[in-house]
Amino acid sequence: MTTSADGWPATGARSITAHIRAVAEAVAAQASARTDGGERVRTETLPLAAAAGRVLAADVTANRDLPGFDNSQMDGFAVCAADTPATLPLAPMIPAGHWPDPLPEAQAAPIMTGAPIPAGADAIIPIEDTDATSFDAAVRAGQITVPEVSAGTFVRPIGSDARTGDLLLAAGTRLTVPGLGTIAALGQTEVAVHARPRAVIYTGGDEVTAPGTTPLPPGALYDANLTMLAAWLDRNGVAVAASRLISDTVADFAAVLEADLAAHAPDLIITSGGISAGRYEVIRQALEGCAAFGSVTMQPGGPQGLGTHTSGAVIICFPGNPVSTWVSAEMFLRPALAEAYRCTSAHRWQPAALSEDVTPLARREQIRRGTWHTDDTGHVTAAAFSGTSSHLLAAAAQATALIRIPAGDEVVPAGSTVQILPLEEAHGE
Ligand SMILES: Nc1nc2c(c(=O)[nH]1)N[C@H]1C(S)=C(S)[C@@H](COP(=O)(O)OP(=O)(O)OC[C@H]3O[C@@H](n4cnc5c(N)ncnc54)[C@H](O)[C@@H]3O)O[C@H]1N2
Ligand code: MOO
Its domain of life (predicted)? Predict the structure, then answer.
């Protein structure tokens, strides 16, 4: 189990930015090795509605014109613009889904939205712009009075959205809802996408107990981190192949890891806990040969580990405090996944004015949990929760934003501009 351990500065800690880069580089190197024409390249074919957020494996080219024929943009009357303004006799009704006969000269055909424009017509007049109170009334009257229009009015021309042969979605695109609709509009039911990157996740320590276990032994607590990591990875486009609580025995963890690597060939090995300065740091002791451990000037999430296993899987180790685990995933793993696999979106930090004074840490940048608010004028404010400790998970569950408070010796006064990351799964006010 030896390979390129990620170098950490021999003295001191790494900045947040430096660790974001290091994780992104490790994941990018792994992802490009994985998609380098070898057997690790994996694609799968999914029904369209199941493919939102997935990454296209092949270009999507238009196999037809969209729209496929000139058609009406309005419920109204198809006319030849040169005949208007006029009172015109009515031609037969043209419902959507029926191919019409040509429009007789100097007549108007009632036509529905989406119906093909008859030969001889070149403009549509919406019913509300005529003297008809309804289509039935117009048919009864046998004629319609229309204002002057120019050719092309409310006509959706063939190919105005896409032309046969156009490249509509390039391989590597992350599929959006309109993207999936476009593929359906071409007549397809399925789409080939990159398989999600695969992760195995571990946390533990002798005190950490699986939820559902009763009674909870003295000194123990329920595991929150596997649930968070599994949910977070799923939301960010990663498949979780194995999720395990481990004991404090290094040999046991090493055996479990080897078995999971053989069974699942993961792209990512994600761990939580067991990496700081204690006597029983099982993750660190087991992975020290292939990952580097050090600290990042961030709170929560100071202790971190990063490396590449001989199997090719990237090893990413987060500290065990629950808020540290979650914030670390958000800060370090999300940008790396967005860049290397495009399976999630990159961060969108935005400026906001602090609504209250905040006392920073002297040497570590804080990622505070809090709320954000946009007023009627678009002015964005953010309020940090008072508690900063990384065990305050229930408080973090109330957060709608992460708030960056740079290290410093002086109070950051209310009104100061800071960067916030609105949390997609929580509602901004
Ligand atoms: N002497 C030092 N002690 C600590 C330092 C340090 O620099 N020097 N750093 C502190 C910081 S900051 C953090 S963060 C933690 C990180 O420690 P580990 O990553 O080794 O995590 P553990 O010790 O295993 O656990 C920390 C904490 O979190 C609880 N935990 C762990 N796993 C889970 C889980 N799956 N679900 C819920 N809670 C979990 C665990 O019981 C501990 O309370 O180290 C500090 N110490
Ligand atoms: O850095 Mo630790 O994550 O403060 O709690």
Answer: Bacteria
Summarize pLDDT for 163-195 with one digit per residue, the tens.
999 999 999 999 999 999 999 999 999 999 999
- What would the two tokens of residue 386 be? 């008072």
Ligand number, closest to the Cα atom of 298: 2
Tokens of 74: 């309005």
Q: Quick one: residue 219, left, alpha or beta (phi over 0 = left, psi -120 to 50 = alpha)? A: left
Contacts of 17 (CB under 8 A, 6+ apart): none
| Residue 246 Cβ contacting ligand 1 at under 6 Å | no
Enter the pTM of the model. 0.90
Determine the distance from the C-alpha atom of residue 315 to the mean position of all C-alpha atoms in its chain, rounded to a whole number: 23
Give 223 Cα–ligand 2 centroid separation in angstroms.
Answer: 17
What backbone torsions phi and psi does residue 89 show, to the nearest 5 degrees? -65, 155
Q: What's the maximum distance between 2 C-alpha atoms anywhere in the chain? A: 94
Half-sphere CA count of 41, side-chain side, radius 13 A: 7
With beta carbons less than 8 A apart as the criterion, state whether 425 and 235 touch. yes
User: Smallest Cα–Cα separation from 46: which of 196, 166, 167?
Assistant: 196
Q: What is the ipTM of this complex?
A: 0.97
CA angle 349, 353, 358 (to 5 degrees): 100
* Alpha carbons 425 and 145: distance in angstroms, whole number: 54
Digit-coded pLDDT (tens) for 233-262: 999 999 999 999 998 899 999 999 999 999
Question: What separation in Å is there between the alpha carbon of 333 and the centre of ligand 1?
Answer: 19
State the burial class of residue 348 (Cβ atoms within 10 Å of its Cβ: 0-12, 13-18, 19+): exposed
In the reported structure, the alpha carbon of residue 277 is separated from the centroid of ligand 1 by a whole-number distance in angstroms of: 9
Taking a C-beta distance cutoff of 8 angstroms, is the pair 287, 317 a contact? yes
> Could you tell me the pLDDT band of residue 39, with boundaries at 50, 70 and 90?
very low
In a 10 Å sphere around its CB, with 0-12 CB exposed, 13-18 middle and 19+ buried, how is residue 267 labelled?
Answer: buried
**Residue 192 CB-density burial (10 A; 0-12 exposed, 13-18 middle, 19+ buried):** middle
